[in-house]
Amino acid sequence: MTLAEHIQEATRFIQGANPFSAIRGAVILGSGLGEFADGLQNVHYVNYADIPHFHQPTISGHAGRLAIGEIAPGFPIACMQGRFHYYEGHDLNTVVFPTRVLKALGAEFLIVTNAAGGVNTQFPPGTLMLIEDHLNLTGTNPLIGPNPEFLGPRFLDMTQAYDSKLRQMAQEVAAHHTITLESGVYAGLSGPTYETPAEVRMLRTLGADAVGMSTVPEVIVANHMGIKVLGISCITNAAAGITGEKLNHQEVMDTAEQTKQRFVTLLSGLLNQLAAQPALSA
Ligand code: HPA
After folding, report:
1. Separation of 115 CA from ligand 1 center, angstroms?
2. CA–centroid distance, residue 124 to ligand 1 (Å)
3. Where are the domains of the chain?
4. Residue 62 bears catalytic tag
5. Which of 5, 134, 149, 196 is at a distance of 20 to 30 A from 176, taking alpha carbons?
6. 216 lines ligand 1 (CB under 6 A)
7. Which residues contact 266 (CB under 8 A, 6 or more apart)?
8. Residue 123: strand, helix, or coil
9. What CATH homologous superfamily does 3-275 map to?
């Protein structure tokens, strides 16, 4: 079967499992944020395990289902509760397959969220950071291989990988809710090891403000398909070597949990704003 057929099968299955004919946008929920989707109106869940050609995430803190529901009547979105990471051993086609299906379901925008280490020492744990750009340091790229022309171009411009209008809107929503929203560059690495202190110093020299193990592949394919992207990182820990403390997944999960309320307020405010202003492509 071809990629186009795989996308079509997954899309048809999801469409058959919820009452909305098309979604307007999509959100990828990072560590600890999954619950956000449970607040959608008229929400329907589709387990990844049931969707043709989807895999199962293997990481605790990530469920494995799509939540489809409305932000406002007539404005359905899909939220990924759990994502696929390269470090889990999936190939990148598997990692980005759901993003391709979200586009086929109708998504005009994609909001990607993640937990990240703070490379910028001004961004302590609990900081919310708007991703203004990224460094792809995974050593690979999801678009390597024959280009699926029906999805997008062979040589993709990445000048506005994170849409400036959406970033502006996020800043306005944050200000409205008196939420401090920093802005910075996200360095995406393969993981699964956390960085060494020397790597963190290197990342700082390269212009990174945050470091994580996700997001970059999905953002690349979303851009490939012409979806507008917004990215927000929750800084869950100071990156390695900054405090002298060791890093662990529990700290990441705990900070994500503590920051959740602010994150959800920002995300809800943003989605309400998007729902109120349908002319996204203008
Ligand atoms: N490094 C990489 N990924 C991460 C980190 C980190 O410090 N924190 C959360 N995800």
Report:
1. 7
2. 13
3. 3-275
4. yes
5. 134
6. no
7. 128, 170, 173, 174, 177, 179, 181, 232
8. coil
9. Nucleoside phosphorylase domain (3.40.50.1580)
